[in-house]
Write a structure and sequence with these properties.
single chain; TIM Barrel; 8-stranded parallel beta sheet; two-stranded antiparallel ribbon; 12 helices
């Protein structure tokens, strides 16, 4: 735990350079090579979708055998599995949503696929299930009943909580992309849903920097909201050039001050002390050659740790005095100078 923090990323964060507007530009690393990179960069855990681990169409016995093989590879590198997320949004049934779909078969598929993801999580030693409601929205307002969609959302959460009495659900909200608009776009929306479930204590959130910015919100504010509820159980740090597609830039390279405000809050309220990870969800630029297509992970981690040092160097008494006098211009200047190393 360097400076009190543990770090994770997903296999998809070391990729071929494909984006919504172009094909792959690099050859893929093998899974074993990605584990080597994680180990060499001093990461502590790997984030997973269910099918990052195993072909979910295999039989139960085949799935168990394969997952145990992957777990041994993690153990050999002293890496943990932070979470498993069911990739329920890519099946032909779910073009118009999963558990909020008008299609009964799509809703059944979402539940059964999620149960299988929970089984995989238990086998690989992850206690968290991350839920990204990618297609739980609409392209056209009149296409779905928004009230009924929320009721179905709660029913789905209840079915997951009822299936496994130990699993925790971490909602990762995103306001748009791939849908035009989400039924549950923010942390507050999801925590309101959580309060209606059969076990709200096992429902929390994972907040991603870019998703928050895409909602027109400030990441540290969303984190503060979740921290106030005791529900910030995961984070995906990255950066974003405003209201565009989900860019997932290296953490802190677009707006260092915004990055500092996130680290300030995480540090102040001791995020990570209960086993939470500093998760990175960053994309390597298409221009990078394969041999250096992991720098975005290396630099995101280093920038985070550098910002921790800056936060710990801040004079809290001075900040409190400036807050009391409402001299916010001086706060801006003070923080900016710290970032500039002055």
């Amino acid at each position: 735990m360097e400076k009190g923090y543990r770090f994770s990323f997903g296999p998809w964060n070391i990729h071929t350079g494909a984006d919504p507007f172009g094909p792959p530009v690099r050859e893929e690393f093998s899974f074993d090579e990605k584990l080597d990179i994680a180990f060499n960069l001093k990461f502590d855990a790997i984030q997973f979708h269910d099918d990052d681990i195993v072909d979910v169409n295999l039989s139960a016995s085949e799935i168990e055998k394969k997952v145990k093989e992957i777990k041994k590879k993690l153990d050999d590198k002293n890496l943990a599995a932070e979470f498993v997320a069911p990739r329920i949004w890519e099946h032909p049934l779910t073009v118009d949503g999963t558990f909020t779909s008008n299609n009964l078969e799509a809703r059944k598929y979402a539940v059964e696929r999620t149960k299988k993801a929970i089984d995989i999580a238990n086998l690989i030693g992850a206690k968290n299930l991350v839920l990204w409601p990618a297609r739980e929205g609409s392209y056209t307002r009149e296409a779905k009943d928004a009230k009924l969609a929320i009721d179905r959302f709660v029913e789905y959460l209840n079915s997951v909580l009822d299936y496994d009495k130990n699993i925790r659900i971490l909602g990762e909200m995103k306001p748009n992309e791939p849908m035009d608009a989400s039924f549950c776009p923010t942390t507050g929306h999801f925590l309101a849903l959580a309060s209606r479930t059969i076990d709200p204590e096992r429902v929390g959130v994972l907040i991603e920097t870019a998703h928050t910015i895409l909602a027109g919100l400030e990441p540290s504010d969303e984190m503060g909201f979740a921290l106030s509820f005791g529900k910030l159980w995961g984070i995906h740090l990255n950066d974003q050039n405003g209201l565009k597609f989900d860019e997932d830039r290296t953490f802190g390279v677009v707006n260092p001050k915004r990055a500092l405000s996130q680290v300030y809050l995480l540090e102040k309220y001791k995020y990570g002390r209960n086993g939470e990870y500093v998760g990175l969800d960053v994309k390597v630029l298409r221009t990078q050659k394969k041999a250096v297509s992991y720098k975005h992970l290396q630099y995101s981690r280093q920038i985070f740790l550098a910002l921790v040092d800056i936060v710990r160097s801040l004079d809290e008494n001075k900040l409190e005095q400036l807050r009391a006098s409402q001299d916010y211009e001086e706060i801006d200047y003070y923080i900016t100078n710290k970032i500039l190393g002055r």
